[in-house]
Every structure is written in C-alpha cells, then in structure tokens.
Design goal:
Length: 235
Amino acid sequence: MWMHIDSSKYDEARIGIAVSAVPHGGFQYKGSFRPHGSESRDMTVFLDDDGQAFLLYSSENNMVLHVARLNSSFTGVEPSYGRILINQQREAPTVFKNAGLYFILSSGCTGWWPNAAEVHVSESIFGPWHSIGNPVKSSNVADRRTTFGSQGTFVLPLDPWQGRFLFMADRWNESHLGHSRYVWLPLQVTLPPESHGLLENSGSSEKMKWISVALKWSSEWFPVHESHAVVHDEL
C-alpha cells in the first residue's frame, strides 16, 4: 500500500509504504521517504499490462508530475524518473489504459475546492503527453468548472474492451474532512477505429480530436449488469 504522508502544515510531502500478505491486512508500516529526494504530494500507483508498476506524484511545488518505475518488490522506486506535464500545475493524477494508450485524468491545484479536470493521453507512460481537454460533458458551466463538485482519486476498469470505466472521486468537506463524500460516475472512452500510432509525429491535434473521454452526471446507472445499480442522489 502506497500513501501520501503529510503534516497539518502540508510540508512533509512524503510517500508512505505498508505491506501485507493479503489485501485486507493486517498491514505493516515500513516508513516514509521522498522518492528521488523530491517532494511527493498527490500520488497514485499504476500496474501495467506487463506486470510493471509505476508511481506518479505531484512534485516541484505541484508544478510537475514525476513518474517512476517501482522495483520488483513494489516497495521502492528505480533510480531514474521522468518529469511530465511540466509547469502545468496538475495534481490528483489517476492513470488508466485503453487500447494500448495511457490516460491521465488530473485536477488543477485549488486546495480543497474542486476545479476542472483535464485528460492527457500518450503512447508511453513517460510521455510525451497530449491534452484532450475537460472530460465533463454537461451544459452546466459549474459542472464543467468543478468536475461535478469533486476531485478524481481513481479510475477503475469495468469493461475496457468497450471503453467503460468507473470514475471515482472525492467530494471534500474542508471543515470536516471525515464527513467528505464520494462521487462514482461512468466514464466512457471512445477511440477511432485505427488508434495505433494515433499520436505519432508532433502536431497531431487533428488526429487526437477523435479521442473522446466522456464523464456525465447520472443519479442512477448500471455499470455492467442491471443487478449492480449505483445510486448517488444523496452525494
């Protein structure tokens, strides 16, 4: 288990690690560190199709995302790392993959207040990354500006062959963080028929515009089977 370790002053900026033989614990805390000596704030880990795992975290005063390969035991990082989304001030990165393409859905940096999400896509987790804009599809300006009043925390594959994912987000309550809520919404990825090599060459915006990542509000929906209804009217 990898986690963000910080103080009330938000000046620790460290990664914590705990291990367990089974997912439900108990976990043994192994301590915390700054990967490559760098600040690490909002972070995520991503397991690729080939079994390699990666750490992505906001660093350099939240101006840059760092990406590093985990070691074979998943308890540390390899010596080298990449700097991506430079000077874009993104945090809360969530990583997912579809049809061989990597996607990062992240937020801006506005403290506990929600803001507009942005999606980047790449053929390599180390980049180059290309923005395809705000995934929120709504006629309500506030929805688009605040990602339905939430900040992404994870994107779970439901049926990736059909481009179906579950967007999982926090709806923060700054005054009482323990009373914060969750927002779960369907996320749909649509690619053109021939997606391999889509991002080759610079200036590929004309090709990229055909990639769609759509996040829409629904008070009740069925992720895969009708017996698995998700209702969140009270969020």
